[in-house]
Amino acid sequence: MEPLDKLKNDWKKNGGKYPKFSEKEIYAMLHKGSSSIVKWILIISILEFIFWIGLSFLMKDSQGSQRINNMHIDYITIPMTILSYGIIIYFAVVFYLNYKKINATDNAKTLMVNILKTRKAVSNYIFINLAYMMIGSLLILVLFFYYDPSLINALHQSEENGDTMKFYLVYFGLTILLLGVFIFIVWLLYKLIYGTLLKRLKRNYNELKKLDF
């Protein structure tokens, strides 16, 4: 619980026995809390970057990775990998700069502006990451039809049996379903982690609007 929230709860429980705090003191609490929240956003983005790198190393010998490697499409997969890491690094830098700005802010209006910028940056980060995952996965899916020998053979077999439409429906249907479940799970995690922090930032922003400097 934020210090300001604890103060309000204690104030209600004790019938206002505690001394009143000045607007500058309340601002200091909000400033400290906002700075802490943005710092956690930065830390989580760095941990996410480390997680995806670690996962890529763990999955490099998996069957799916081997199939992609055997297709010899490095000219596509390498730029995609660089782009995915670039997205995280770019926003990590943005979060760091926002943290520095909020940490150095000395007035309420500027702090409110920086809070809004941070919330917008986090929202953009979530949207761009999810969009990249979806587009990248669909691109790899299409490339399998052109370069994966086992899938090409299965497609030819279905054509000989007259089940081409069924093959496409099953393959694309299952793949899109699994992709949708994966994207939904990632979205839930983002919503849980980043969404919680964004709500706290929004609460601080609303408290700042009540102050009169």
Automatic annotation (TrEMBL):
The keyword Transmembrane applies. This is Beta-carotene 15,15'-monooxygenase. It comes from Flavobacterium arcticum. Keywords: Membrane, Transmembrane, Transmembrane helix. The chain crosses the membrane at residues 37-58, 78-99, 125-147, 167-190.
